[in-house]
Design goal:
The protein is an alpha/beta fold and 425 residues long. It contains 18 helices and nine strands. It folds into two domains: 173 residues, D-Maltodextrin-Binding Protein, domain 2 (3-Layer(aba) Sandwich), CATH 3.40.190.10; 219 residues, 3-Layer(aba) Sandwich (D-Maltodextrin-Binding Protein, domain 2).
C-alpha cells in the first residue's frame, strides 16, 4: 500500500505545483489595451510621455495608441463597434454623439469607478447617459478666444481690444495699414465648422449671456430668432471686410498658416492651436478674450468639454481598462497631459500648474469670466435637421454672400422647430 500511495502523492504534488505555476503566470501575463482616438497628431506625445508614465506604474498593462483621422473617427468607430473590432479604450466625444454610443450599448457604465470622485457633477455630465449615469472619465476641455501677434500690435501701435467697438477699430487700423491680414479666418464650405466654433461660439456668449442663452434654447424659453442671437450673428458678419481675400476658399489650415507665418495679426481660434501657431514660427503670440458688446459687461468664455475616455463594453480586458481610467483621473495624469498638450485643460478638482506661458495666459482668461460650452453641440444637435449642420451651412453663406443674420437665425430656428419638442411651443 505504501508503495502505491507514494507515487500518487508525488503525482498530486506535481499537479498542484503545475497549477500554481499556471495561476501565477496568468496573473502576471501582460495585457495590451487598444486605445481609440481621433487625434493622430498626439501619437508622439502619448507614445513617448503619457503611456510610458502609466506603464512604469503598471508594468503588466501595455497601452497601444491607435488613432483615426478626426473627420473619419465617428463613422469608423461605429463600424468597428458593429463589427466587434473596436479597441478597449474609447476616446469619447461629449454630448449627443456619446449618448448615441451609450444608447447602443457600446460603452461600459462607470458608476462606482473610484477616480470619478475627482470630478464635479457638471464635468461628468457631458459624457453621461440621459439618466445621468457616467460612461467616460473627463480628460480635457478647450477654450475659444483670439490669438494675436504681439509684434504686429507693437509695430502698428495697437492696444488689445476689450470691447466690440475697440475690436472693430483695431481691425480697421490693420486693414488701413495694408501690410497684414487683419483676421486669419476663412469661410470655405468644407470648414464651415470654423465659423461656428471660432466665430459665433467664440464671441456670441457675450451677447446671449452664456448659459442663460444656451439653456434657454434647450428648455424652450428662448428662440434663436431672439435679439441677442441675431445681434451675435450681426457681430460675426461685421468681420467679413477684414478676412483674407478670397475667403470662400480659405481653409482652416490656410488661416492657421497665415497667422503662424506672421502674415495675419489676429487669429480667432481655440486653445488647441497653441502649438500650431508657436511651434515653428517663432512669432511672439498673445491671447485676448472675446470683446464685450459694451464696457463693463460680464465676460463669457467658451470652455468646452472636449474629450473623455471610456471602456468598450465588449472589451475582454475591462479590469485593466478600469485601472487605466483610474490613473487618468489622477492629478498626476492631468498635469502630465496639460503640459504635454498645451491648450488642453484638465477638468479635475485639483489645480494644474502649466509650464507653457501662453497656455497659462489662456487659462487666466477664465478669471472673473462665466464659462459656457458650445451652443449647439449637445442636446440641440440630437435630431434632424441637425442644429449644427443647419447653422454652419447658413453661416458659411452669411460670411460669403449677402445672406443676413436674421435669415440665418430664421433658418436655424425653423430647423429646431421641426424636431425638438421644447421649441415647438
Amino acid at each position: 500500500m505504501k508503495s502505491r500511495i507514494a507515487p500518487l502523492a508525488l503525482a498530486l504534488a506535481t499537479a498542484m505545483i503545475a497549477l500554481a505555476g499556471c495561476s501565477g503566470a496568468g496573473s502576471g501575463d501582460q495585457v495590451t489595451l487598444q486605445f481609440e482616438s481621433w487625434r493622430p497628431e498626439d501619437a508622439a506625445i502619448w507614445n513617448s510621455k503619457i503611456i510610458p508614465a502609466f506603464e512604469k506604474e503598471h508594468p503588466d498593462i501595455k497601452v497601444q495608441f491607435s488613432p483615426t483621422k478626426a473627420t473619419e473617427y465617428d463613422a469608423a468607430l461605429k463600424t468597428r463597434f458593429q463589427g466587434g473590432t473596436a479597441g478597449d479604450l474609447i476616446t469619447c466625444r461629449s454630448g449627443a454623439l456619446n449618448r448615441e454610443n451609450i444608447k447602443a450599448g457600446y460603452l461600459e457604465p462607470l458608476k462606482g469607478l473610484a477616480g470619478l470622485s475627482n470630478f464635479d457633477e457638471l464635468s461628468q455630465s457631458f459624457w453621461a447617459s440621459s439618466e445621468g449615469d457616467p460612461y467616460c472619465v473627463p480628460v480635457a476641455s478647450v477654450m475659444a478666444a483670439f490669438f494675436y501677434n504681439k509684434d504686429i500690435f507693437k509695430e502698428l501701435n495697437l492696444q488689445v481690444p476689450t470691447t466690440q467697438a475697440e475690436f472693430m477699430s483695431v481691425l480697421q487700423a490693420i486693414k488701413s495699414n495694408g501690410k497684414y491680414v487683419p483676421l486669419a479666418l476663412g469661410a470655405t464650405p468644407g470648414d464651415a465648422w470654423v465659423l461656428a466654433f471660432m466665430g459665433l461660439y467664440n464671441e456670441g456668449p457675450n451677447y446671449w449671456h452664456g448659459e442663460d442663452g444656451r439653456q434657454g434654447l434647450i428648455d424652450g424659453t428662448k428662440k434663436f430668432t431672439d435679439p441677442e442671437f441675431v445681434e451675435a450673428l450681426d457681430s460675426l458678419k461685421s468681420w467679413t471686410p477684414y478676412m483674407p481675400d478670397g475667403r470662400a476658399s480659405v481653409t482652416y489650415s490656410d488661416a492657421t498658416q497665415l497667422f503662424a507665418l506672421g502674415k495675419a495679426a489676429i487669429f480667432p481660434s481655440g486653445s488647441w492651436d497653441i502649438t500650431a501657431v508657436t511651434g515653428t514660427s517663432g512669432i511672439d503670440v498673445g491671447v485676448f478674450a472675446p470683446p464685450l458688446p459694451q464696457a463693463g459687461d460680464q465676460l463669457y468664455i467658451q470652455s468646452h468639454p472636449d474629450m473623455g475616455i471610456g471602456i468598450n463594453a465588449a472589451s475582454k480586458h475591462k479590469k485593466q481598462a478600469q485601472v487605466f481610467l483610474d490613473w487618468v483621473a489622477t492629478s498626476e495624469f492631468q498635469t502630465l497631459y496639460a503640459n504635454a498638450l498645451p491648450g488642453f485643460f484638465g477638468m479635475g478638482k485639483d489645480a494644474v500648474k502649466l509650464d507653457n506661458p501662453l497656455a497659462q495666459a489662456w487659462s487666466d482668461l477664465k478669471t472673473g469670466a462665466q464659462l459656457t460650452p458650445r451652443l449647439g453641440q449637445d442636446i440641440l444637435s440630437g435630431g434632424n435637421p441637425d442644429f449644427e449642420v443647419t447653422m454652419e451651412n447658413s453661416l458659411q453663406l452669411m460670411m460669403t454672400t449677402d445672406k443676413t443674420a436674421a435669415e440665418v437665425a430664421d433658418e436655424t430656428q425653423k430647423g429646431l422647430e421641426a424636431w425638438y419638442p421644447p421649441q415647438m411651443k
